[in-house]
Structure formats: C-alpha cells, structure tokens
Specification:
This protein has about 240 residues and is an alpha/beta fold. It has 8 helices and 6 strands; from the N terminus they run H-H-E-H-E-H-H-H-E-H-E-H-E-E. The structure holds adenosine-5'-diphosphate and magnesium ion.
C-alpha cells in the first residue's frame, strides 16, 4: 500500500529527542526493578510519537532484563471497544515469549481465571461455573491478573504497555484502574498511552468516562515535554 510505503520511508530509524520522556520511563523502570511499582501515562496528540517512544523504551527495558507485555485498545467507531482486548493481547504475547516452565510457575488456581481471556494460557482450560456470580468471576479475574504480574515480577521486572486507552472498553479501564491502585511492591511498570485530543472529544455521555480520570491520584511527577524537533507537544507523566 502506498501509505505504508510512505510511512516506512519517512520514519526515522533514530529516535529524535525525547530525552526527558525517555529518562522518566527509565527512572520508573529502575524504581520498579527495585520493588517500587510505577504507573506512567504517556499523553499527546495523534502522531506525536507516543508509540515510538514507548517502543524504544520497551527495547531498552528488554535489554536491561525486563519482560515486556503489550496490548492495544482498538477503536470500534461509536461502540465500546472489545472487553479486555488489550489485556488478552498482552497475555497472548506472554504465551509467545515465556518458557513453559515459567508459565507453569505462574498459572495456578489464583491465576486460572485468566484462561477465560486466553484459554491456551491454562492447560485443560477454565471451567465456567454456573454457580459463580458474574461479579465474583470478575474479581477473580482482576486478582488473577495482579497475581500474575506479581509472580512474573519475581523473575524479572515487568513492563506492561497498554496503548491508546482513550479507546479502552469499560472492562479494560476498570482492570487497569484496579491494577494501578493495587500495585504495592510488585516489580511492575504499567505504561498507558492515550490521545489527549481524542480524550476531550470523548469526554461525554455516561459510558464515556475519560480513561485517565478513572485512575488513582494524578501522577506525582508530570512534566510537559519539550517538543522533539519538528513535533508537537507530548507528555510523559510518571508516578503513583
Ligand atoms: N522522536 C521521534 N523520532 C523519530 N521518529 C519519530 C519520533 N516520534 C515519532 N516518530 C515517527 O512518527 C510517526 C508517528 O509516531 P507514533 O509513535 O506512531 O505516534 P502516536 O503513537 O503518538 O500516534 C512514526 O512513524 C514514528 O516512527
Ligand atoms: Mg500510537
């Protein structure tokens, strides 16, 4: 496709600028590796370089021994996004990169509920119990994801990247808010990107809560980035 060829040609192989933002992400990773989990929101207009920044950081985190899991929210036009879609994507990524021994060590009754999102994660599948009230199943799923992150973090620091949370469905928003609030000493960095322009457009109606608004206290350190050459303003905010 012409569009793809153009963007491939125009894309710089070298990350231009973004040193303060990269520094904020690397500092968050360092804190998480030492047992202080971090939540980082990366906001900015479409095309400003959020994904590129996070991708470059993810490469560095992998080189530094981190486990990177990532998933993206998908726009379904006027509809809510698919429930838990980015979380399922991140878990499928884990299936691809983790050894069977690692999976065997992290999947047990406390995390089995995640098999509802990605059945292959759980040998033998997860049996749906008709007696389990739906809200309990959700609690077990949320808890299971937190436990999974904690266990993975015992082996290596975990970077969980969820892209484009302005398109997140309600379930994903709730899960991310839960994780952000419950992280205590897990070796985890949660990074979420969002389009600031989309956020303002969507902040209306009962089902369209701004994703960042559902999150814990505003990031402690929030720094407006200097523009990368030729680029508009983006922000990387870190803290918990
Ligand atoms: N700092 C940067 N240095 C070099 N290229 C960049 C930089 N930021 C963004 N780009 C390029 O600009 C394009 C759009 O960036 P992208 O990260 O996809 O934007 P966003 O995720 O904010 O919508 C991509 O081709 C990306 O590689
Ligand atoms: Mg992007």
């Amino acid at each position: 496709m012409i569009g793809d060829a153009m963007s491939a040609r125009l894309s710089s192989p070298i990350l231009i600028g973004r040193m303060p933002e990269m520094g904020a992400l690397e500092a968050a990773f360092g804190r998480a590796a030492a047992g202080s989990p971090a939540v980082v929101l990366v906001g900015g207009e479409a095309g400003i370089g959020k994904s590129r920044l996070v991708r470059e950081f993810a490469d560095r985190a992998r080189d530094a021994g981190g486990l990177v899991l990532d998933g993206g929210c998908v726009s379904l036009g006027s509809e809510e996004g698919l429930p838990f879609a980015p979380i399922a994507e991140a878990l499928r990524g884990l299936l691809r990169i983790a050894d069977a021994s690692v999976l065997a060590g992290v999947i047990d009754p406390a995390t089995r509920e995640l098999g509802r999102l990605v059945p292959e994660l759980v040998a033998g599948g997860t049996e749906a119990s008709s007696e389990t009230p739906a809200e309990w199943a959700q609690t077990r799923l949320f808890d299971g994801f937190l436990v999974l992150l904690e266990r993975l973090g015992e082996r290596q620091p975990v970077v969980l990247v969820i892209e484009d949370i302005h398109w997140a469905d309600r379930s994903t928003r709730d899960l991310l808010a839960f994780i952000a609030r419950r992280l205590r000493h897990e070796r985890v960095v949660l990074i979420a990107t969002y389009r600031s322009d989309e956020l303002h457009r969507r902040r209306c109606g009962p089902h369209r809560r701004a994703p960042a608004a559902a999150w814990p206290a505003p990031p402690a350190r929030c720094r407006a980035a200097r523009r990368a050459p030729g680029r508009r303003r983006a922000r990387a905010c870190g803290g918990r």
